[in-house]
Amino acid sequence: METFKIYNKITEPSAAEKEEVISFLFQHLQEYGDKKEDIGKCFDFAVRDSNEGLGGFVLMLLENEEIMGATIVNKTGMAGYIPENILVYIAVHENARGKGIGKKLMNKAIELADGDIALHVEPKNPAKFLYEKLGFENKYLEMRLKK
User: Fold this and answer.
1) Domain span at 85
2) Which of 132, 127, 146 is nearest to 29 (CA)?
């Protein structure tokens, strides 16, 4: 049976639950991922209690209590000129890919997010086609300066 589970400022996870999600994302993001420490910072931001309009949520799709997909959405606090939300991480269990888990997870994240959503995707990432089908557009070329 598939169910969704959400962590946010109201439903904070235990340390073990947090570690389970971070480890899942680290493992299943594969070449599109970051260090566990960075995923943890993103997780902490999503579940923080903030009166500045920040925070966000962590969303998981579970099948028989096992994580099949997870995403972290952070609020930007910049409504109007930057999307209100950024989908920072999303991963589907490597054994469940191609079965609609990513689409279900994305649709639920879109439903839960208050306002527009931005995400970054590598040009060769196969998930890019799903994002386009869901209405995401490539409006800008992202450029970064690393200092």
Assistant:
1) 2-133
2) 127
- Cβ-in-10-Å burial (0-12, 13-18, 19+) of 32 comes to middle
CA distance linking residue 65 with residue 98, whole number of Å:
20
Does residue 44 lie within any of the structural domains? yes
Q: How many domains does the chain have?
A: 1
Residue 141 lies inside a defined structural domain of this protein: no
pTM of the model: 0.90
In 3D, which of 40, 46, 50, 1 has the Cα closest to residue 20?
A: 40
Tokens coding 59? 């969303």
Could you tell me what percent of the chain has a pLDDT over 90?
65
